[in-house]
């Protein structure tokens, strides 16, 4: 470490460091992008853009600091600045798009119907997962975001505040409201399935 | 017994006082997210030992969080993505 201080890294060294430190975040980052855009191609573009930006600013990134939070922050800003303008579709379309996404994987193939009846427990798991996804995707993007960051990615409130550029108090209240709407949507589902909550 | 406790709490909040249960509701997220201080945890745990509605709200909130982190499917990253990121970075001066 100390050998490198004050010295410019070569392009190869920089690239190697960049890949070692930031590429491990690819999976959570892509999932976050997908949950924001609800489209695989858009998620792809958004993630690429995020990494290119990160590369440009990599000199400012301090080694050993929270790479994941840093990348999430860049991605979220890119999403707000560019993607929201590009996709003029309001949040309402989300629902059907995602239903389509899941259905195309499971049902289109010939074996689709058979496999759902075969693995009973697995398909129950799938049903719950699909329902959670639909309920989540039907939430406004700000609500969706805090739930993903907190429950799926396990960021702390402090990290979320930094990623989203909002005070911790706002993180808390947004999360609270987001969970209330999610609960409401899932309770409707539970009732329609005959469960009592 | 428990329902009587609840009734008292509800009356309090109707009078415009902040009841203990209202305070507990504000702590629910902190508790399930592991963000509560040790004082808040102690206060919370003591309360839910004797208040059934708050105990149940806590269970529900935990369940909700579990649904998201345990059941939401992760999408699979396309294999080409890491490669194209690496390629584009190498082109960048
Ligand atoms: Zn209570």
UniProtKB/TrEMBL annotation, chain A:
All copies of domain RNA polymerase sigma-70 region, residue ranges: 26-88
Organism superkingdom: Bacteria
Pfam families per record: Sigma70_r2, Sigma70_r4_2
A GO MF label: sigma factor activity
InterPro entries: RNA_pol_sigma-70-like, RNA_pol_sigma-70_dom, RNA_pol_sigma70_r2, RNA_pol_sigma70_r4_t2, RNA_pol_sigma_r2, RNA_pol_sigma_r3/r4-like, WH-like_DNA-bd_sf
UniProt KW keywords: Sigma factor, Transcription, Transcription regulation
Family per record: Belongs to the sigma-70 factor family. ECF subfamily.
PANTHER family linked: ECF RNA POLYMERASE SIGMA FACTOR SIGR (PTHR43133:SF59), RNA POLYMERASE ECF-TYPE SIGMA FACTO (PTHR43133)
NCBIfam families: sigma70-ECF
Protein's name according to its UniProt entry: RNA polymerase ECF family sigma subunit
TrEMBL record, chain B:
Domain of life (superkingdom): Bacteria
Organism ancestry: Bacteria, Pseudomonadati, Bacteroidota, Cytophagia, Cytophagales
Organism: Pontibacter indicus
Gene Ontology molecular function terms on file: zinc ion binding
Name recorded for this polypeptide: Putative zinc-finger
Keyword Zinc assigned: yes
Entry-linked InterPro entries: Znf_put
Keywords noted in UniProt: Metal-binding, Zinc, Zinc-finger
Domain Putative zinc-finger positions: 21-54
């Amino acid at each position: 470490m100390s050998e490198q201080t004050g010295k410019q890294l070569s392009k190869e060294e920089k690239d190697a460091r960049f890949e070692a430190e930031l590429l491990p975040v690819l999976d959570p980052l892509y999932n976050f992008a997908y949950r924001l855009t609800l489209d695989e191609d858009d998620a792809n573009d958004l993630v690429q853009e995020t990494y290119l930006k990160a590369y440009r600013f990599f000199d400012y990134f301090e080694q050993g600091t929270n790479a994941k939070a840093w990348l999430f922050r860049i991605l979220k800003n890119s999403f707000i600045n560019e993607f929201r303008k590009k996709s003029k579709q309001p949040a309402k379309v989300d629902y059907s798009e995602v239903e389509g996404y899941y259905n195309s994987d499971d049902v289109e193939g010939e074996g689709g119907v058979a496999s759902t009846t075969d693995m009973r427990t697995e398909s129950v798991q799938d049903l719950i997962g699909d329902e959670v996804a639909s309920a989540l995707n039907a939430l406004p993007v700000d609500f969706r975001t805090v739930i993903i960051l907190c429950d799926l990615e396990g960021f702390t409130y402090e990290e979320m505040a930094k990623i989203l550029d909002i005070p911790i108090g706002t993180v808390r209240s947004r999360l609270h409201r987001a969970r209330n709407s999610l609960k409401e949507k899932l309770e409707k589902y539970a009732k329609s399935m005959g469960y009592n909550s | 017994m428990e329902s009587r406790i609840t009734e008292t709490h509800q009356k309090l909040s109707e009078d415009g006082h902040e009841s203990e249960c209202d305070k507990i509701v504000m702590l629910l997220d902190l508790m399930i997210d592991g963000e509560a201080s040790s004082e808040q945890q102690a206060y919370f745990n003591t309360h839910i030992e004797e208040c059934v509605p708050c105990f149940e709200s806590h269970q529900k909130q935990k369940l909700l969080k579990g649904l998201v982190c345990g059941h939401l499917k992760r999408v699979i990253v396309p294999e080409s993505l890491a490669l194209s990121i690496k390629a584009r970075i190498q082109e960048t001066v």
